Amino acid sequence: MSKANVRKSVSEQMRDKLLKLRAELEAAVETAEGSAAIVELDQAKVGRLSRMDAMQAQAMAQASGQRREEMSQRINAALKRIDDGEYGVCLKCDERINPKRLEFDPTVLLCVDCASKSENG
Length: 121
What we know:
Elements: H1 3-32, H2 48-84, H3 99-104, H4 112-120
Helix pairs in contact: 1-2
């Protein structure tokens, strides 16, 4: 099998993985939709501590929703890179990203070296 065919096969495997991740993410969004609802402030209905617990749960649900949205954007960007033939190439140095790194996180943009350099300075 030629290198181009191997890359295409890997890209198709990653596409399948990304689509599966997106489906899981969408299912999580449906499950969590009610958690970020506005907390009612009527003390006659809910005690102060219960309301504080509800507000904390609401904040956590909103933060989780934001992380899900960011992940959705990363997944869509990775799918676009696959379509454009640019998937698996480091955005900084244009070298191929290790397939094991892509297997761990199929939305990754940088190779290990460039990611380390970005974190350290």
